[in-house]
Design brief:
There is one protein chain. The protein is an alpha/beta fold. It has two domains: 2-93 and 246-276, Alpha-Beta Complex (Quinone Oxidoreductase, Chain A, domain 1); 97-223, NAD(P)-binding Rossmann-like Domain (Rossmann fold, 3-Layer(aba) Sandwich), CATH 3.40.50.720. The chain is 30% helix and 22% strand. The chain has helices spanning 12-19, 88-92, 94-107, 124-135, 149-153, 167-174, 189-197, 229-241, 257-265; strands at residues 2-9, 37-44, 57-61, 71-73, 79-81, 115-118, 139-144, 158-161, 182-185, 205-207, 219-220, 248-253, 272-276. The strands form two sheets. Strands 1, 2, 3, 4, 5, 12 and 13 form a seven-stranded mixed sheet that branches. Helix 3 packs across helix 4 (124-135) and helix 3 (94-107) crosses helix 8 (229-241). The longest helix has 14 residues, at 94-107.
């Protein structure tokens, strides 16, 4: 299908591809396209594609680094219908953050009996993983800067400032000494180690950011392992119903994609940055 893009999210991994930081894992030959997340309107449907027609509102992804554009070709299995109540920016930013959060929560086998620690808890992935764990009934401590603490408390999350010494002790104090049982890491190796230092079983530590975590017995999560129409629909419906909230930090026109990435690379973004072609 050919989709006219109405919104396309940007992600930290794409920034690292741009800078060459991930060249060993995801090489790039410049100039090239970028972007996975997308939402838009079906412009044309190829032969033999059932269930979609020109004019349908859809959301999903492409694996061809191509969503930061006005039009994108996608496979039928990469998109689903967009719920009418879901905004274009939220729909366009759903895929990577949504499937990453879904994979983290399910890989760590979070349940209502858990006490869960989430790193970068106000970021694009962290904000959804935090809410997902809370919706399951878990107690959640979220690592974030002070500017995001009130927002996290609004979801019933125990906020902990990520900066400063003795982070492990501060987590324990915030939780009144209760034992952390699972860690969802969206930021980097130091938080896998933090989970180990807090006595969390390695198999209950899931990370999307530390590709060496397996050497400690922790689980490295890849969002695309759960990418399917069923999971995309589940996430989209949860957002449309209000069971999950995806904060949109900023929107940029496609012509200022550089500005969008400059803001992303400054860090401390609550939620997602979205391009509007």
């Amino acid at each position: 299908m050919l989709v006219a893009v109405r919104a396309a999210g940007i992600n930290p991994g794409e920034s690292k591809i741009r800078t060459g930081e991930l060249r060993e894992r995801w090489p790039a030959t410049f100039p090239e396209g970028e972007g996975s997340d997308l939402a838009g309107v079906v412009d044309a449907v190829g032969p033999g594609v059932p269930g979609f027609a020109a004019g349908d509102e859809v959301l999903g992804y492409t694996n061809n680094r191509a969503s930061h554009a006005e039009f994108v070709l996608v496979e039928a299995g990469e998109i689903v219908a967009k719920p009418p109540s879901l905004s274009w920016p939220q729909a366009g930013a759903l895929f990577v953050a949504g499937t990453s959060a879904y994979a983290l929560v399910h890989t760590a086998e979070v349940s209502g009996q858990d006490i869960v620690l989430v790193s970068a808890a106000a970021g694009g992935v962290g904000s959804l993983a935090t809410q997902w764990a809370r919706n399951l009934g878990a107690t959640v401590a979220g690592l974030a800067g002070p500017a995001n603490h009130a927002w996290l408390r609004g979801f019933g999350v125990v906020p902990v400032d990520y900066a400063g010494p003795d982070l492990g002790q501060r987590v324990r104090r915030a939780l009144d000494g209760r034992q952390v049982t699972a860690v969802l890491d969206t930021h980097g190796p130091q938080y896998v180690q933090l989970g180990l230092d807090l006595g969390v079983h390695p198999q209950r530590i899931a990370t999307i950011a530390d590709f060496t975590a397996g050497q400690h017995g922790a689980k490295v999560v890849q969002h695309y392992t759960v990418a399917s129409p069923r999971v995309l629909t589940e996430i989209a419906e949860a957002l449309a119903s209000g069971d999950l909230q995806m904060p949109i930090a900023a929107t940029y026109p496609l012509s200022d994609v550089r500005g969008a990435y400059r803001q992303l690379e400054q860090g401390h973004t609550r939620g997602k940055i979205v391009l509007l072609p």
